[in-house]
Automatic annotation (TrEMBL), chain A:
The keyword Cell membrane does not apply. Its cofactor is thiamine diphosphate. InterPro entries: Alpha-ketoacid_DH_E1_comp, DH_E1, PdhA/BkdA, THDP-binding. It comes from Kineococcus xinjiangensis. Residues 52-329 form the Dehydrogenase E1 component domain. Residues 309-372 form a coiled coil. GO terms for biological process: branched-chain amino acid catabolic process. This is Pyruvate dehydrogenase E1 component alpha subunit. One of its GO terms (molecular function) is oxidoreductase activity, acting on the aldehyde or oxo group of donors, disulfide as acceptor. The lineage of its organism: Bacteria, Bacillati, Actinomycetota, Actinomycetes, Kineosporiales.
UniProtKB/TrEMBL annotation, chain B:
GO terms for molecular function: branched-chain 2-oxo acid dehydrogenase activity; magnesium ion binding. Residues 30-205 form the Transketolase-like pyrimidine-binding domain. Coiled coil: none annotated. CDD domains: TPP_PYR_E1-PDHc-beta_like. This is 3-methyl-2-oxobutanoate dehydrogenase (2-methylpropanoyl-transferring). Its cofactor is thiamine diphosphate. The lineage of its organism: Bacteria, Bacillati, Actinomycetota, Actinomycetes, Kineosporiales. GO terms for biological process: branched-chain amino acid catabolic process; response to nutrient. It comes from Kineococcus xinjiangensis. Its EC number is 1.2.4.4. It holds the Pfam family Transketolase_C. The keyword Chloroplast does not apply. Residues 1-27 are annotated as: Disordered.
Length: 372, 364
């Protein structure tokens, strides 16, 4: 699956500033398209894997939304409609690379190998992120917008200083590109030539605010250019294109070519979170129009047309997805086991005397409550 | 590119294997800035994971010269200038620490650390907790702080209360050159993130003492001067002022004990409360504005713990509740020897005989 890094990086360099149309490899009807020769079409087995993980990811996502409705999760930000980005990114990264996700990116985290229940820990009301970031090289899902971009740049720069072949990829939303940290991160990445990939899922909205009120830039991809960071605009509903773009950015970074900024054009089909009412700020017609460009349907069409996907495999994949959803349901059917004493455990490497005192007081209170 | 840093051994987590704290050379007069410089050099030499970066810290050696010569000695991959962006300095330090390095970063001046506040409070302080101890962030944030140097607007803030109020951060501040060395070495070895506040007006104070990381631990207060009548609790730039006041007070018949907190968070309740119980009176001194200031916490804690030993309410001598004044007015803001003596004088000395008569009880 490896691509010639130098040839590709030259091409990316030609893309300053980004072209006026999003690069794609498979169009909304499942037909192959020419991405100007910039993106290398993934091989058949990669396309099948993208499909399998997208089916699983979508099922997991709808299950999580349902669990939020039932009150099993405090809140859930769905990524329905953004599966091409979620899965394309997670699969394009190599084992040794790092993912820096946001609250929106549970499906990408799941695809990286983190267990479904662990992924949803925070949303379930836990006090911690639920997983060990070092196990799958996935940072905790980040809520303060754009702050994770700097962590990715720092981690990537450290890798470079240590002579490690590690690339860090940060996921950002369109709204997050207005935050100062995005700009500081692009600038540092450019100056340090850090092996980092910025992937913006432009899903049209930051909660209720549409892109038109977010920026006057003709494309978000333009934002990389000012910092000397080569930038790409891709069809974010085309899993093959996202996968290929990230692969190419990773190879470029690995070859010493530094950071890449990728804007992936997609759409947030569901509400901002399970607590949001999108009818207050957008028309259903707009949602319906985007549904015709569904990333999963188009990949499926393509795979069936090319004979790679048959009913039997489709059924097996669907079964696997049901299994993953069932595990999440079961895992979350029990109440979270809370341990008040744990609140004090990891504030510092060792609890301070002050915290030990407070813990003792709280435990006394609880013991008294139990007695009365 | 060439790797100058040894990769950490497989399976180890960053922050779990501090390098050795070397003991430095024989005593010679050294300024606080010089002692900090030596501490950084010794830490860089002792531990290949240590990196030093910030604004102007490389070629220039920092606006206060604390990093002087380090880039030349350790190379541009271990000591380097960053673009101008404080949030990015802290944010990238976090990422580097996640990947096994021990970043020691400089905020050029106290008030210019504010752009980094979100990274410090939401991530640096909380990552360990958020990951149940899996991700340690052994980052040291050096902040030159406070006034007394004729600095203009934005260059003289005392920002300790903001950081001390944030769980997960350690906040320390040295008062002497030797302790500056010790505390900085200890901070760099500490597995927790440390906000290291450097009192600007003591940068050029000299001391002849061995520079060593041994001695009081990072979270311990020390008694700088023993006394029996009143405890002055202070830290950083005002420790020197309190010691001067203690000398002057001796002439007036007060035997003043001076406690240097060193660690503002966590607070060394044991050492400070022991002193206050012994003397029965306490004064808290700092140059930061008083309202909702760090001294309020000190006074409240001591009242809660030492009430029955107190002969007087705990008083505070602090800066005024105004934006830091310009050079020609700062002397009115900063705690002075006279203000400390005045406050000591107000600690209810005259009430004693009457009260003893009334109750017939003797004094402990
Ligand atoms: C620094 C910061 N400000 C505000 C918020 C509240 N907030 C959470 S999500 C969001 C919208 C973000 O939009 P975008 O970056 O486009 O990501 P999306 O939610 O669409 O995936 C806002 C304003 C936040 N989390 N962090
Ligand atoms: Mg958005």
């Amino acid at each position: 699956m490896a691509m010639p890094a130098t040839a590709v990086s030259d091409r990316i360099a030609e893309l300053l500033p980004p072209g006026g149309f999003p690069l794609g490899l498979i169009d909304a009807d499942g037909q192959p398209t020419d991405a100007g020769g910039v993106l290398n079409p993934p091989p058949p087995e990669a396309l099948l894997e993208l499909h399998r993980r997208m089916v699983v990811g979508r099922r997991f996502d709808t299950q999580a939304t349902a669990l939020a409705r039932q009150g099993r999760l405090a809140v859930y930000p769905s990524s329905r409609g953004q599966e091409a980005c979620q899965i394309g990114v997670a699969l394009a990264l190599r084992e040794q690379d790092w993912l820096f996700p946001t609250y929106r990116d549970s499906v990408a985290v799941l695809t990286r190998g983190v267990g479904g229940v662990e992924v949803l820990s925070m949303m379930r009301g836990e006090w911690h992120c639920g997983y060990d970031p070092y196990e799958h090289r996935v940072a905790p899902q980040c809520t303060p917008l754009a702050t994770n971009a700097l962590h990715a740049v720092g981690l990537a720069h450290a890798a470079r200083l240590k002579g490690e072949d590690t690339v860090a990829l940060v996921l950002l939303g369109d709204g997050a590109t207005s935050e100062g940290d995005t700009h500081e991160a692009l600038n540092f990445a450019g100056v340090w030539n850090a092996p980092v990939v910025f992937l913006v899922q432009n899903n049209g909205y930051a909660i209720s605010v549409p892109l038109s009120k977010q920026t006057a830039a003709p494309a978000l991809a333009c934002k990389g250019v000012g910092y000397g960071v080569p930038s790409l605009l891709v069809d974010g509903n085309d899993a093959a294109a996202v996968f290929a773009a990230v692969r190419c950015a990773v190879e470029r970074a690995t070859a010493g070519g530094g950071p890449t900024f990728i804007e992936a054009l997609t759409y947030r089909v569901d509400a901002h979170t399970s607590a949001d009412d999108p009818t207050r700020y957008r028309d259903d017609a707009e949602v319906q129009a985007w549904l015709t460009r569904d990333p999963l349907a188009r990949l499926e069409k393509h795979l069936r047309a090319t004979g790679l996907l048959d009913d039997e495999r489709a059924r097996a994949v669907q079964e696997e997805a049901e299994q993953v959803a069932a595990e999440a349901r079961e895992g979350l059917s029990a109440e979270v086991e809370v341990d008040p004493a744990a609140l004090f455990e990891h504030v510092y490497a060792e609890p301070t005397e002050n915290l030990l005192e407070q813990r003792a007081r709280l435990l006394d209170e609880l013991a008294e409550e139990e007695q009365s | 590119m060439t790797a100058t840093l040894e990769p950490r051994t497989a399976g180890t987590r960053p922050g779990t294997e501090p390098g050795p704290a070397g003991t430095a050379a024989a005593p010679r007069p050294v300024t606080m800035a010089g002692a900090l410089n030596t501490a950084l050099a010794d830490a860089l030499a002792a531990d290949p994971r240590v990196v030093v970066f910030g604004e102007d810290v490389g070629t220039l050696g920092g606006v206060f010269r604390v990093t002087d010569g380090l880039a030349a000695r350790f190379g541009a991959e271990r000591v380097f200038d960053t673009p101008l962006a404080e949030s990015a300095i802290i944010g990238t330090a976090i990422g580097m620490a996640m990947n096994g390095l021990v970043p020691v970063v400089e905020m050029q001046f106290d008030a210019f650390a504010y752009p980094a506040f979100e990274q410090i409070t939401s991530h640096l302080a909380k990552m360990r907790n958020r990951t149940r101890g899996r991700v340690a962030l052994p980052v040291v944030v050096r902040v030159p702080y406070g006034g007394g140097i004729g600095g203009v607007e934005h260059h003289c803030d005392s920002s300790e209360a903001y950081y001390a109020h944030t769980p997960g951060l350690r906040v320390v501040t040295p008062a002497t050159p030797a302790d500056a060395y010790r505390l900085l070495r200890q901070s760099i070895e500490c597995p927790d993130p440390v906000v290291f506040l450097e009192p600007k007006r003591r940068y050029w104070a000299k001391e002849t003492a061995p520079l060593t990381a041994d001695g009081p631990a990072i979270d311990r207060a020390v008694v700088r001067r023993s006394g029996t009548d009143v405890t002055v609790v202070t830290y950083g730039g005002t420790v020197g002022t309190a010691l001067e006041a203690a000398e002057a007070a001796a002439g007036e018949g007060w035997d003043v004990e001076v406690v240097d907190l060193r660690s503002l968070a966590p607070f060394d309740d044991a050492t400070v409360a022991e002193s206050v119980r012994r003397t029965g009176r306490a004064l808290v001194v700092h140059e930061a504005q008083g309202f909702a200031g760090y001294g309020a916490e000190v006074a409240a804690r001591l009242t809660e713990r030492c009430f029955h030993h107190l002969e007087a309410p705990i008083l505070r001598v602090t800066g005024l509740d105004v934006p830091y004044p310009p050079p020609k007015l700062e002397q009115h803001h900063l705690p002075t020897v006279d203000r400390i003596l005045d406050a000591i004088d107000r600690l209810q000395w005259d009430d004693e005989p009457e009260r003893f008569e009334g109750t017939g009880e003797g004094r402990a």
